[in-house]
Design brief:
It is built from 21 helices and 20 strands. The chain has a five-stranded antiparallel sheet with strand order 2-1-5-4-3, sandwiched between helices. It has a five-stranded antiparallel sheet with strand order 7-6-10-9-8, with helices on both faces. Strands 12-11-15-14-13 form a five-stranded antiparallel sheet, sandwiched between helices. The chain is α+β, with helices and mostly antiparallel strands. Helix content is 48%, strand content 24%. Helix 2 (36-45) packs parallel to helix 4 (77-120). It has five domains: 2-104, no CATH class; 127-227, 2-Layer Sandwich (Beta-Lactamase), CATH 3.30.450; 242-349, PAS domain (Beta-Lactamase, 2-Layer Sandwich), CATH 3.30.450; 368-472, Beta-Lactamase, CATH 3.30.450.20; 479-598, Beta-Lactamase (2-Layer Sandwich), CATH 3.30.450. The longest helix has 53 residues, at 600-652.
């Protein structure tokens, strides 16, 4: 306190000294009001008391203290007026300046308190002028956004989520235009780049005339509240959209909530059931069950999932799977119960149908005309179920087979291939497997079987067991072997025959050529299969040969045709092709079996014979011509002789 007075007095002494020096040196006269400027400064910085003390000290120094012989202790009337005027004006200046300073300090303190308050609250606080330009943001906003103050103030919209930015700016402009409070929810970007939901609000501050001076705004983080609302809405949506019946009730069984699933399950609407008791849904023979449940709930126990029967509005009974849980308040007291029920009527019907189907499947399994077997995991493949036909195929009893595995009765030479087939299915490469293999029967005999099987997987997709259908194909395999033997004998006979032998299928395509024919054409058997030797037929004979072949295929009748066929050395040879239909055991047309015989020498002999006949005929014709000439000459001579004789006779008459 005394320091302010001392400094104020020192300032005024210096001022008086400066004025006195100016007077001594003969400078321009400084008016007495020159002292108002330091008084004004003292009043602003030191206060009203020091400024008044300084004014009095100026009067004392200037008038009562004789600084020079020019002054005395006496006060003239004019000096008294000046002193009074100076003192009065000093009082007014000091009072006004001190008041202004006090008001400034109060405003400054209020601003500091406001800033401290704004920085201490969790909201983002901002102030903008009447035009909407932001002039202040609290420190919390700078901490949240990570922006410099000038960046945040100049471009506040850049921290708003792009999807919310247009709406936020439009709402702010509308508030500026209408003067209505600003209230909107938007997402603001955090300094780490993430966005959080905020509730933005702004209220205008108006003067006495109702004109807006500034806008005070806050942005409150509502991420958790919004998430909670969304979770609650999501939970409510789940409750309403689920097909399960979700029912809330009081400890005495009075129903307080009833969702859509409950309406669908029981047929009652929300309005019909809220306020009623749960006993209305229970059939008479289940009342004790509900009472026991209520006792457990009131004890705070949860009733786990169980199956029961309830009654719909239309009187029909439905099978439901129910879970009942107690609802507790903040103090842990049981204030109600939550019932979740699921309609299992369809499942019950399916279970009944499944039982029927299982009985049918069991009967089909046992009475099937082919062997059926089930085995455990794909590793051991031990039989777990076999039918009677499978027992008959293998010669084992059911009890004996259940102590064996599929590998135990499989022929040793077929086990590796059989295991590979099952591994392929187990690994998911194929949906099922098919194999032909041999079984060793109980009596030691070997039979051939066809096995069609698949792998059954558990809920996790892991192989669980194998199911297979087994058919005894020993007779067929023996028949196929006999057929192969006959075919092999045919090939041996055909390949050793000196003529070309071939087989065509029902479409006329080549299926077999013997060795003689292949060597004649100079190609491989694979090249001849299919199209056959049509490309080796002489171009002149090819159309006639093709028509004859197609006609025979269509009519299924034997045919014979002659044509020229190119041999391996490039020479065309005359052949005669003869074929007869090949019929299956049931009389179906399978194709043709035929031969091609080289008749080139015969053709040449016939051509030579035809030439000799022509020459003989020409010679006979020449002989006939010569004979006719002789005959004509003899006839002419005879005619002349007769004429001469006639003339002589005429001359010999008298």
């Amino acid at each position: 306190m005394w320091m302010r007075y001392a400094i104020s007095l020192a300032v005024m002494i210096i001022t008086v000294g400066l004025k006195r020096l100016n007077d001594v040196w003969g400078g321009p006269a400084i008016p007495f009001f020159f002292f108002f400027l330091p008084l004004l400064m003292i009043a602003w910085f030191a206060g009203f008391g020091p400024s008044i003390a300084s004014a009095l000290s100026v009067i004392a120094i200037a008038q009562y203290v004789p600084l020079s012989p020019n002054y005395s202790l006496g006060v003239s009337i004019g000096a008294a007026e000046r002193i009074a005027m100076f003192l009065g004006q000093s009082l007014i200046i000091c009072w006004l300046t001190a008041s202004r300073r006090g008001a400034y300090r109060r405003v400054h303190n209020a601003e500091r308190q406001f800033h401290t308050l704004a920085d201490s609250i969790p909201q983002l606080v901002w102030i903008s002028n009447c035009d909407g330009h932001t002039v202040y943001h609290n420190h919390r906003l700078f901490e949240y956004t990570g922006l410099y103050p000038e960046e945040s103030i100049a471009h506040w919209e850049q921290i708003v989520h792009p999807e919310d930015r247009e709406g936020a700016v439009a709402a702010w402009r509308e508030s500026l235009r209408t003067g209505k409070p600003y209230d909107i929810q938007y997402r603001l970007r955090n300094r780490d780049g993430s966005y959080r939901w905020f509730l933005g609000r702004a209220t205008p501050l108006r003067d006495r005339d109702g004109k807006i001076i500034v806008w005070f705004g806050t942005a409150t983080d509502i991420e958790h509240e919004r998430q909670a609302v969304e979770d609650q809405a999501r939970l409510a949506a789940i409750v309403e959209s689920t097909e399960d019946a979700i029912i809330g009730g009081l400890p005495d069984g009075t129903i307080t909530s009833w969702n859509k699933g409950a309406e669908e399950l029981f047929g009652y609407t929300h309005t019909e059931m809220v306020g009623r008791r749960a006993f209305d849904l229970v059939p008479p023979d289940r009342m004790e069950e509900l009472r026991q449940i209520m006792v457990k709930i009131n004890r705070g126990e949860r009733v786990g999932q169980f199956e029961t029967v309830r009654v719909r509005k239309d009187g029909r009974q439905v099978h439901v799977c129910v879970t009942v849980s107690p609802i507790r308040d903040a103090q842990g007291r049981v204030v109600g119960a939550c019932v979740v029920g699921h309609d299992i009527t369809a499942r019950k019907q399916m279970e009944a149908e499944l039982q029927e189907r299982e009985a049918e499947s069991r009967a089909m399994f046992e009475l099937a005309g082919i062997g059926q077997a089930q085995a455990e995991d794909t590793q051991t493949r031990r039989f777990t179920r076999v039918n009677q036909r499978f027992c008959e195929i293998t010669g084992y009893s059911e009890a004996e087979l259940l102590n064996l595995s599929a590998q135990d009765i499989t022929h040793p030479d077929d086990r590796q291939a059989d295991s590979a087939s099952i591994r392929s299915v187990t690994m998911g490469k194929t949906p099922h497997w098919f194999s032909e293999k041999r079984y060793i029967c109980k009596d030691g005999s070997v039979i051939y079987v066809e096995v069609n099987g698949t792998v059954v997987r558990d809920a996790d997709g892991k192989p669980w067991r194998t199911i297979a259908c087994i058919q005894d194909v020993t007779s067929r395999k023996l028949a196929e072997q006999a057929l192969r033997d006959r075919e092999e004998r045919f090939r041996i006979v055909a390949n050793t025959a000196p003529v070309s032998i071939w087989i065509r299928n029902a479409l006329g395509r080549c299926a077999f050529l013997n060795k003689t024919f292949v060597e004649f054409l100079g190609i491989t058997l694979q090249d001849a299969l299919g199209q056959g030797w049509i490309d080796f037929v002489h171009p002149t004979d090819e159309p006639h040969y093709r028509d004859r072949l197609l006609s025979a295929v269509a009519s299924h009748k034997p045919y014979q045709v002659e044509y020229r066929l190119r041999r391996a050395d490039g020479q065309f040879r005359w052949v005669i092709e003869s074929a007869v239909p090949w019929l299956s055991t049931d009389g179906c047309f399978e194709g043709f079996i035929g031969s091609c015989v080289d008749i080139t020498e015969r053709k040449w002999a016939e051509q030579t014979l035809r030439g000799a006949n022509v020459e003989l005929e020409l010679q006979i014709a020449d002989s006939q011509n010569e004979l006719e000439s002789v005959q004509r000459a003899l006839l002419s001579e005879r005619t002349q002789r007769e004429r001469a004789e006639h003339t002589l006779k005429k001359l010999g008459q008298p």
